[in-house]
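Session log. Operator J.P. requested a structure for one protein chain; no other inputs attached. Running the standard single-chain path with token output.
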Amino acid sequence: MFLSSRRSRWKSFNIVTLIALVLILIFKSIDEPATQVKSTLNSAQHLQATTTPKQNHPLATAIPEKIWYKLGPRGITPEAREWINSCLNKNPTYSVEYMSDAAADIYVKEKFAHRPDIVEAFLALPLPILKADLFRYLLLLNEGGIYNDLDVSCEDTPIRDWIPARYKHETSLVVGWEFDVGWFDGFVRQLATWTIMARPKSPHIAMMVDDILESLQAKTREHNVAISGLTWAMLGDVVDVTGPRRMTRSIMKSLKATLGDSFDEGSLVGLSEPKLVGDVLFMPGYSFALSSNHYKAEDTQGPTLVTHHFKGSWKNEQGGESVDFVSQ
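Structure written below.
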């Protein structure tokens, strides 16, 4: 009797235990998917927060918002300060950096240590204008931004709006015609070098630098002198060696190498609006050099972006300004 009672109680206990285990498994299987969904949502939210940082001030273009100026021995004159301020005041989000002759030498030695041919040639150049020309290309090649000569003033259009919206993602170099419209047949067109915009590492600017080095070496072989021994008479016109014509030829050469037969240099003549070729945006003459072009009343013109005041301190026997006073 006692044994039968124990067996009955044991059987009841096993049934209750089994039911409890089944219920636990059922509730656990219901709860787990919800927990997994919550965990997945939390993970996704964390991933989004860590991989998509908030951008309070998105850049309008990949070209760095920085303006470069190269100073001569005189520093910044009161007149030049007015022109510089016209650019800085209208573009308050842009940073600015001024580079003296000494700072330029240090910069090239440090930033182009991997290119001893560049460093050696730059430090040996005997005329200030040659160094000033080459240095602007080296700055833009290494860091990008906007290079302005000291005698350039900015007009009303902010720099962020210089590149049409449809071209902003593709543009890596912005240049403008100095001579384009209203000149006699057969004249040599050239791009202005007083204002240049670029992303860093532009292959077109790299082509300019290499072409300049090659030209200098050719001159040293021709006259049997070192770079430091080159004179005005040996070099010829500076615009062909390091200036506007050199830049123009190198850009066209680089685009031809990049685009092949599809590149049509003739399509860049007489521009009435900005034109993108490859990743180079060509600005019409009125953009950077209104006074150097001769438009008719019926010609289509957009806004003038900068004005060049043609102070040309390099146009003397020394190839650069002399130190007869130093600005404070």
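Operator note: The first helix runs from residue 2 to 51.
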